[in-house]
Automatic annotation (TrEMBL):
The chain crosses the membrane at residues 15-37, 76-96, 203-224, 236-259. Residues 124-337 form the Peptidase M48 domain. It is a multi-pass membrane protein. This is M48 family metalloprotease. The lineage of its organism: Bacteria, Pseudomonadati, Pseudomonadota, Gammaproteobacteria, Candidatus Pseudothioglobaceae. Binds 1 zinc ion per subunit. Keywords: Cell membrane, Hydrolase, Membrane, Metal-binding, Metalloprotease, Protease, Transmembrane, Transmembrane helix, Zinc. It holds the Pfam family Peptidase_M48. One of its GO terms (molecular function) is metalloendopeptidase activity. Its cofactor is Zn(2+). It comes from Candidatus Ruthia endofausta.
Length: 338
């Protein structure tokens, strides 16, 4: 397997996807700003002094105002900036909310495994493998959690290498032998070394940030619904603004999740390459993948599983929103057949 080539390709694709995220953020902000500016101007045209004009004339005039002079253009850009700041603020909130790996593991019902407690043979083996692979990767050994779920899966989480955790399901421990489990854990260590754990938080936060659009739409809806002094036609305009902004939110989140899945697929290839590099034994991870091909269940029962699907070792989504490449393709890459 050509580690460097695969790693460089995954990193390059990651940069492209980040660029597309920023483009999506800017486009959605501009669309929201334009909708607000035009819509509010259109609502103003339902004052008595404009009653001689029909809807078409008012709509055209409301659009023309945007480019009437520099002041109007700055007002439009101001609305766009407000929308951008709202989404960035929600993104920052989402980042800090999801940055604690221990809380994420506990949300899955995970049990912290420590040498200070009496452990089963399987738990002791898993803890030893984490220590071994962390040593091979030259990082501090992350905390290990075992999730009481019969599905076969694992994930790494946390904001920094020092705060990282690795979580493995009980189903993984029961299904894999030591060599296979070493490949799986090395894969998760790879996510930590490649800073994917922080990247996962950033991606989730970005998609969460797009949901701020819905709060803006709801605020406009309530403003129209409970303003008794507003003309009924002006209210209808505001309801339409709220609906359009909500639609922009739906499309933005939808495209955001597609980019999230694409980003996740690239980082999975990178973690696979890192796992082979740490274990020096490609067949360990390949054999683990073959266990999954032979009917292994990957979907966790926990309600948090869907939100963190991109961080799991094995995917749980459809093709468009697939957070992981097909196992056949991952095996071929490890075996340097593609």
């Amino acid at each position: 397997m050509d580690f460097r080539e695969h790693q460089d390709k995954a990193k390059k694709n990651t940069l492209i996807i980040w660029f597309l995220y920023l483009v999506l953020l800017l486009i959605s902000s501009i669309l929201i700003g334009y909708t607000l500016f035009v819509g509010l101007n259109l609502a103003q045209f339902y004052q008595p002094e404009y009653q001689q004009y029909n809807f078409g004339e008012k709509f055209i005039a409301a659009n023309q105002i945007v480019f009437q002079n520099q002041e109007q253009l700055f007002d439009f850009l101001g609305f766009s900036l407000v929308a951008l700041l709202a989404m960035l603020s929600a993104t920052a909130f989402g980042f800090f909310q999801k940055s604690n790996g221990h809380k994420i593991a506990l949300a899955f019902g995970g049990k912290l495994i420590s040498d200070e407690e009496e452990l089963s043979i399987e738990e002791k083996q898993a803890l030893n493998i984490v220590t071994e692979q962390a040593l091979a990767a030259n990082i501090p050994a992350p905390a290990l959690y075992i999730i009481p779920d019969n599905a076969i899966n694992a994930f790494a989480a946390g904001k920094t290498t020092q705060e990282a955790i690795v979580a493995i399901t009980q189903g993984s421990i029961a299904s894999f032998n030591r060599t296979q489990l070493s490949g799986v854990i090395a894969h998760e260590i790879g996510h930590i070394v490649n800073h994917d754990i922080k990247l996962n938080i950033q991606i989730s936060a970005f998609v969460f940030g797009f949901t701020a659009v819905f709060f803006l739409a709801r605020m406009i809806f309530y403003q129209a619904a409970y303003n008794r002094r507003m003309d009924g036609r002006a209210k209808l305009v505001l309801f339409t603004i709220a609906a359009i902004i909500a639609l922009i939110g739906v499309m933005t989140v939808w495209f955001g999740r597609i980019l999230q899945a694409a980003m996740s697929r690239q980082r999975e290839y990178l973690a696979d390459a890192s796992a082979v590099q740490f274990t020096r034994y490609p067949n360990g991870l390949v054999e683990a993948f073959e266990v999954m091909q032979n009917g292994g269940k990957t979907k966790l029962e926990n309600p948090n599983a869907k939100e963190y699907a991109h961080a799991m070792l094995f995917g749980m989504g459809g093709e468009l929103f697939a957070t992981h490449p097909p196992l056949d393709k991952r095996i071929k890459r490890i075996q340097n057949r593609i």
